[in-house]
Amino acid sequence: MIRLLCLLSLCFVSSLSAASRPNIIFILADDYGWGDPACYGHPYAKTPNIDRLAREGTRFTQFYATGVTCCPARTGLMTGKRPATFAKYPASFGFGDRVTVTELMKKAGYATGHFGKWHIGPVMTPGTYGIDVIGSDEENVAPKPVDGGKDTRVYDNAIAFLEKHKDVPFYMNVWGHITHHPIQPQQRFVDEFASLKVKDADFSAYQREKFATVRKHGGDVDDSMRRFLGEAFSMDQDIGRLLAKLDELKLTENTLVIFNSDQGPSSPQDVLRERTAANAAKKPLSPEKARLAHHLLGYAGPEVRGGKHGDYEGGVRVPFIVRWPGKVPAGRVDAQSVLSGADWLPTLCAITGVTLKATDFDGENVSAALLGGVHIRTQPLFWKVNSEKADPTLRWQNWKLHVPHRVRGEVELYDLATDPGERHNLAPQKPDLVQELTTRLKAWTDTLPKTYEHGDVKEN
User: Can you give the CATH number for the domain in which 201 is found?
Assistant: First the structure.
């Protein structure tokens, strides 16, 4: 069915791609929560350029990362495959024989570039995955500019690539490091929020728990929030430079720009590895970990709980904004379509008219949603980290099922339509539905590798 839908959708957009093949820029933030941009409701954030993308394009409220850490999320975007299907961890071993978005674009005549974070294989030289230009040594080792942000050199290189390839179709990944820890913005970005005073009531109950953790360890929530928002503001300013260059070169009208995040926000608990209060009491915090904890205040949004490393909505539901003037509706908010990072490969192929020789992908062509319609999924979304004993999760329609893989914990079933915070476990009241969804989830996990190899690179 997915293959048939993909072929039909390719026909649907063929006239569009024939008339105008777009340039593509995929901007990926790191550990940036669903609720962190101002246009997604953050009460204090200053993100005028991300907001501009939302104002001039479509903002999606139900987009899901394919993983809960950096490599798995990137694996889905690059290959259209769920990361748990890889027996060898891609950050250590690469994607093997899986075709990637950049290879497909390269074969279609696009100039291809990748700037910023990699974390998708041991080889990072031009030609890898069909990418012509891959960052630079300077980008990765040089200190950040005195008046810039952590990702300024990433955007400098992306802008240089843009200028060089302005006369040909291009595809580039701009994958920044913000807001991954450590949070260390230049003071001028912090000063943008000098008068900020955090009011706990402006945030969700889950976020208030994070504030309490920071305070418990002697942190200053006001100062921490200023630093976090300052770091994000520096990213937004660099995004603004990239958008301004598109305007200057008169490429805006024919460039498809995506803004996304690899997974939900880090939390003090993630950095501290504070799983229980008892463990925290046994092992006092080092000053370094205490400092990190104070500065990790990413926001998953007003309704959900959870964050990076977990399958609750706060860990996997992330911002996703699409702008393509004249093709993607401006000022639209799509709260109905449920999208996944694995959808990017088949969707982009449909939009650009690229023929897929292989149909071995897990994502769906969701181009109809990008172009103003609604996408109804034909298959569930699945999550599982690359470990034999990891707990799997499924979303089907509005239902979210968490199943313990080992003999511990309990099955959790939530109706996201009425309970996006996953607070009210309906599993005891709906045993038939639990059985149906568990059967579907098991059918998927039975297809996965029986063992995994991680190599030297661990999930982060």
Answer: 3.40.720.10
